[in-house]
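== Sequence entry ==
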Amino acid sequence: MVMDMLPAIRVEGDEAVRITDHVIREERYLIYLNNQLLTEQIASPDQREELGAGFVICEGLVEHVERVSAEGTEIWVEAESRGGIEREFRSGGGCGIRGVPKPVHSSLSISPEQVRRITREIESETWKKTGGVHCSVLFSTTGLVTKSCDIGRHNTVDKVVGFTELHGIDRAKCFIGCTGRQPAGMVAKCANAGIPIIVSRAASTDAGILTAEQTGITLICFSRQNRFTIYTNPQRIEGIVRAARGP
């Protein structure tokens, strides 16, 4: 991660001390798809190729990426785009697809201990130093695949998905851990990427839960230390359905 050391004054009680503090850097990137400007994204200045590749997949614009390159603040993606897609632009500068995200087909199941393990991996040294980033981590059944920190929670998902695309990794055999909330747009990104299980330290929304249910994603939120809450498709978490008590 790219950080700057900037001057500041830290106040504790009645004492004020001049310090230099770690501050995360942000940039504006233009993402092009097949030589046409697609969107402008505010992101941390690393993993630029992963950001471009993952963005077009997570937004449902393409199935696979053929080539991606980055020069300065421009990211160029080449891919066969899906026909008949209508884009809509959000106030935050992002670009999304109207309609229902793709269904997820995967036989992956994981243990409660794997849920707890991915939760432990979500915290990053960059967050400890700056407090200014989100983080996503991607695991397979054999261990950690990749990790991304960024000022934008959406960007972290794009970057880990982009990594899998550029390295030929089967996302149907992966599960993702995120620091950020899981509204419908975040869940839809994972659905379009074909990731079957989401683990978040934060909350979801009613629309996020509905999107997970409709697309076949197992959505886990409030995953902290030894507890977590499963909102949809609990059959992917080994032993939980059988052990669950209550109405």
User: Anything to note?
Assistant: The radius of gyration is 19 Å. Residues 153-166 form the longest helix (14 residues).
